[in-house]
Write a structure and sequence with these properties.
The structure holds 2 protein chains of 2 kinds.
Chain A (H helix, E strand, L loop, with lengths): L1 H25 L1 E10 L6 H18 L2 E2 L2 E9 L4 H13 L5 E3 L4 H14 L3 E3 L17 E3 L8 H10 L4 E7 L2 H17 L2 E8 L7 H9 L4 E5 L3 H14 L5 E3 L6 H7 L7 E5 L8 H12 L7 H19 L6 H8 L28 E7 L2 E4 L3
Parallel strand pairs in A: 1-3, 1-4, 4-5, 5-6, 7-8, 7-9, 9-10, 10-11
Antiparallel strand pairs in A: 2-3, 11-12, 12-13
Helix pairs in contact in A: 2-10, 2-11, 3-4, 7-8, 8-9
Chain B lengths: L1 H28 L6 H14 L4 H27 L3 H23 L13 E3 L2 E3 L1 H23 L1 H11 L1 H6 L4 H26 L6 H15 L5 H21 L4 H16 L4 H4 L5
Antiparallel strand pairs in B: 1-2
The chains are: A alpha/beta, B mainly alpha.
Chain lengths: 382, 280
């Protein structure tokens, strides 16, 4: 009798221990994720949509991922690389985040890279700047790109230009790293694709008149013009000059001008201009993008452009990584897991895929060629 | 070639309008107001926010208000020191503050307004009527400024205020008043330039310093003391820019105008002293 009671007690104790054990598994320790975005300054054009998209996803799915409480901590890098690395330091040291979406700009990511490496927390960069995932960087293992890089889609855009019959092409680019990079990349492509660049002119941000440049393009016999610009007013000023000089050739723009501000500033002159775009969430969303659009509108946010998509990519990457991690979640575990993610669920075009040798999660299939019609970017048929 | 020169002249006339306030203020106070570009930016931003012709009035008014702020700064600085460089530096500060205000209120969206949709044709040359309007307004304002400075009592007072401020005060000239008047007139001219740019190429919140520098360059290149030299400076830079765009490529294009200015200023042949009426 005595021994039976003893046995029952032991059984009870064992059950209790198991019970707490299983309760522990269901209630995994909470983790914190950082979001360092350019919510003010020139890059706020992208930073605000990124913030809105994240907030709508957090609202939609509550604050749990894979049965664990996840808290997002935001920090504004003010489009300033110094602020970006300060934000990253602060979020890791004070808030103990295990991964960070951001910083908001390429230069911000490059500035924060060494910090991420030292404190061992991965950065998920929403920027196209090619250099951020250069394998030569000492901090390469810690940076993942959640956007297509600046060259992605350019090749298909140039193929399209050549396919439509233009062989002599003029390039206008803005005088900065983005502009120069695009102009040089086009030069590289010209040999493979069989077109010639008849003119290539750089213009400062504040140019008030671009008619001499367009006149030169006309005199050079350009059959199409490629615009590597990201300042909407500059793009619009260029279209005005094209109209004034009376040059009637097809106009193509790289993704820098895929912004609503460009359509507004260009007015009727923008009609028919072809613009490369990272997804087309604001005007013509593809089926995977429609999911994000629905979630954003449901939670009271207006989808604005590719900023929404990139932040969504960041959120889905974090989610996929947390699903896969079984042990304790640390910065190191997040980094190691993200590197193995491929073909996980996303809310954007293209397939998200990382590997040890490829930290660029999205490729050319995340971009789409659009044409401005009726004051909107309409996706061209693929 | 002729086409480039012509287009350069059209664009240069707006530069002249940005240079004019510099001349005006330098003539009366022997220092420079670097907030001109900011007045232009503010006028353009306000004009886009108010619909219709009223927008133009509101734009000009905002530029005048901004220049009144500069007046207050100027008067306060003058109380403690006669050093002109402090005024110039303070105007830089004001310029940055105005740019920030524009960024906070209007964000990064570009400011553009379309007026004429038709394009005039002269032979093979196509011109937007706005371009011709810009030239007409610029020349009229330069001429008016020149007349005021050279042919009126007010002009003599303005010049006297700069050349010998204590002497002018002894002669019962309200020196500070005249100088503030020049600042406000500058605000108006800068605002006008901003409105013309708004209707021709458009701009965004980053424009202010760029406009100030091109205006300053146009003002000093052939001598800062005369409105007519400003016009020449503005047109000269416009033409050089157009020719550079027409005959060079890549990064060289935006270097040529600066090189041209450097050569002119270094040569000293067209500098302020020699032809602008000063005694050697």
């Amino acid at each position: 009798m005595h021994s039976i009671r003893k046995g029952a007690l032991a059984l009870l104790a064992a059950t209790a221990a198991l019970w707490t054990g299983s309760a522990y598994a269901q209630d995994k320790p909470a983790v914190k994720i950082g979001a360092v975005l350019s919510m003010s300054g020139p890059a706020a054009v992208f930073g605000i949509p990124e913030r809105d998209s994240l907030n709508s996803l957090i609202k939609e799915f509550g604050s749990t991922m894979d049965g664990r409480k996840v808290e997002f901590v935001f920090c504004d890098d003010k489009t300033n690389p110094t602020e970006a690395s300060r934000c990253v330091t602060q979020l890791i040291n004070d808030d103990k985040v295990v991964a960070i979406i951001g910083p908001g700009t390429g230069s911000g990511i490059l500035a924060a890279g060494p910090v991420a490496q030292r404190l061992q927390v991965p950065l998920l960069g929403p920027a196209g700047t090619v250099a951020i995932t250069d394998k030569g960087n000492a901090f390469y293992p810690w940076i993942f790109r959640i956007a297509p890089n600046d060259t992605a889609g350019m090749e298909s855009l140039w193929k399209q230009i050549v396919l439509k019959g233009a062989k002599k092409i003029a390039i206008v680019y803005q005088e900065d790293a983005y502009g120069k990079f695009g102009a040089e990349f086009a030069q590289k492509l010209s040999k493979d694709l069989g077109f010639t660049i008849v003119e290539s002119i750089g213009v400062p941000y504040t140019a008030t008149d671009l008619t001499p440049q367009v006149t030169k393009f006309r005199n050079a016999g350009a059959e199409a013009i490629f615009m590597q610009l990201s300042v909407p007013s500059l793009g619009a000023a260029f279209l005005k000059a094209v109209n004034e000089v009376g040059l009637k050739v097809p106009l193509y723009a790289n993704s820098g001008l895929a912004q609503k501000g460009f359509i507004d500033a260009a007015g009727p002159l923008g009609e028919g201009v072809h613009v490369l775009s990272i997804g087309n969430v604001a005007y013509d969303p593809t089926p995977p993008e429609q999911k994000l659009v629905a979630i954003m509108s449901k939670n009271g946010f207006k989808p604005q452009g590719w900023g929404d998509l990139l932040a969504g990519n960041g959120y889905m990457t974090i989610k996929a990584a947390l699903n896969k991690i079984s042990g304790p979640v640390t910065g190191q575990a997040m980094r190691d897991t993200i590197e193995t993610l491929c073909g996980f669920e996303t809310m954007s075009m293209g397939k998200g895929c990382f590997s040890k040798d490829n930290h660029d999660g999205w490729a050319a299939d995340a971009t789409v060629l659009t044409t401005i019609r009726g004051g909107q970017f309409r996706s061209d048929a693929k | 070639m002729l086409e480039y020169v012509f287009r350069g002249l059209l664009n240069g006339s707006v530069y002249a309008l940005l240079a004019l306030p510099m001349t005006l203020f330098f003539t009366t106070a022997a220092t420079v107001d670097f907030a001109i570009g900011a007045y232009a930016l503010l006028a353009a931003a306000v004009a886009t926010a108010v619909a219709g012709p009223l927008g133009i009035a509101a734009g000009l008014a905002s530029a005048v208000v901004a220049s009144l702020v500069m007046c207050v700064i100027y008067v306060l600085l003058k109380r403690t020191s006669k050093d002109g460089i402090r005024v110039a530096l303070a105007s830089f500060g004001l310029s940055l503050a105005i740019s920030s205000i524009v960024l906070i209120v209007w964000g990064t969206k570009p400011f553009v307004r379309q007026t004429f949709t038709t394009v005039l044709e002269f032979g093979g040359l196509r011109v937007n009527p706005q371009g011709l309007l810009n030239v007409a307004i610029s020349i009229a304002l330069v001429a008016a400024t020149w007349l005021v400075l050279q042919r009126t009592q007010l002009g003599r007072m303005m010049r006297a205020a700069a050349v010998n401020a204590p002497g002018a005060e002894l002669a019962a000239i309200p020196v500070i008043g005249v100088q503030c008047g020049a600042l406000v007139a500058g605000g108006m001219l800068g605002g006008t330039a901003g409105l013309l740019i708004l209707h021709s190429s458009g701009m965004d919140f980053t424009a202010s310093l760029g406009l100030t520098f091109i205006g300053f360059a146009a003002a000093i290149i052939f001598g800062i003391r005369s409105p007519v030299r400003c016009l020449a400076g503005g047109l000269g830079i416009g033409v050089i820019e157009a020719l550079a765009a027409g005959y060079t490529s890549g990064m060289v294009t935006s270097m040529v105008p600066s090189l041209f200015m450097l050569v002119v200023l270094l040569s000293g042949q067209l500098g302020a002293g020699r032809y602008s009426g000063d005694r050697p």
